[in-house]
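Task: complex structure prediction.
Instruction: return structure tokens for all chains below.
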Amino acid sequence: MNRLQGRVALVTGGLQGIGRAIVERFLAEGASVMLADLPSPDEAADALAALGDKAGYVRLDVGDEAGWPAAIAAIRERFGRLDILVANAGIDGTGRVQDMTLAAWHRTMRVNVDGVFLATRHCADLLSEGGRDWRGGASIVNISSIMGLVGIAQVSAYNASKGAVRLFTKSIALEFAAAKAPVRVNSVHPGFVETPLLIGSSDQAALDFYTAATPLGRMAQPPEIAAVVAFLASDDASYVTGAELVVDGGYTAQ
Amino acid sequence: MRRLEGKVALVTGGTGGIGAATVKRLAEEGAAVVFTGSNAEAAAGVSAATGAEFRAAKVDDPAGWAPLMEAIRDRHGRLDIAFANAGIEAGDGSVESITIEGWSQLIAVNLTGVMLTCQAVVGMMRANPGGPTGSIIVNSSMAAYKPMGNFVGYSTTKGALIALTKSVAMHCANQGTRIRCNSIHPGVVETDMIKNIIARQPDPGLARATYNAMAPLNRMAQVEEIAALVAFLATDETSFISGSEYSIDGCSTAGMMGV
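Output:
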């Protein structure tokens, strides 16, 4: 499959989990991909080498605006254009609300909300240019969550941040459509996904809950999320904008 | 792309519009496609262009489903994909103007017809060689979210399809099958029906502009764009997607329409 031949994508949080699966899928579809993540280039070197010469890397803390101009410059220098943005970088935010410090709350919002806003803000011009070359335009995919659709106890910060991503996405989709900018904007809402991060931070009881709470009776594999992102990035999704695509094994249908 | 090689698909209402475009796309992706409808002349054209097999059938006729499933079983031995697409708008009106006959016909085709489609194909998919697998895609509409005052029957049935879809998805999951069911929600699509309506207006240019302006993207969807989403949901790549509602409306429902 080569639906993304000739396109350049930026994937934040691209080194592991869902982000890594998206990077691999984009490369398989013929795209060039800039990964942005927290580790230093030296720390990321092995992972990057395994991805081949169509993958580049830039160290970026998505919630720190000071780092974005250099990331954009790196994309321009290495690939000369941008057609796809996947705002995937995110962190958790759980605990009893009485115990949650304002600092902890801000830590979640800084990455999950500020990071998504800054990604669109700094990539918008490049994407508006790049989108002119494709029937379906350029594509922004913001990774929200089922936790951006329904609440769960003691997940208030994460819930609030992912809900913000959902409506930020719709607002920007309308803004670009009204401005006739050739950029589609959609959110993806994964259910429980078997990522190293979730597996590593969950005890057996939690893992059992994720499986039991999902009608399909299992967690998602990262490539199942990447497939939806690849669809949204491709011209097959040329009329899909402002939408929220849920990939949750029926979790929110019950 | 040939993502559906070896799969067998059913498309109801496949003789025109979104249905015909989906027959074409699924066939291009490698699926063996059976489609239903009642316009034999249009069906012949679709068959000639795609190699798909036509079966004259009405989705709201309960007696028609067993013979149709039997025919697919005899010919293909399995069913992997069902696009419950058949639907009507004729006979609709506002809550004050609609007749009981018009209402009953809309419920029969748009709602009961989709239930009968799901009932028949779930039964067939359960018996698939290799285990109970399949993907059902229900064609709802953005009218499920933004009902129209002068289309009370259409809006109501399309809204009900959301709950029908989720109920089917939950049942299939609870039963331990790998049969998935999702709804899609197109905005205004430039079908032949819409083109004819536009052509009949005193000022076709103005009518077209009005339809285009219903989406913030400022154009109608092409039938091929809807078919692409159906094809995606038909692939095994979407194996974790069930009970979902996928909008494809050029941003029409992301905000308040017209604002």
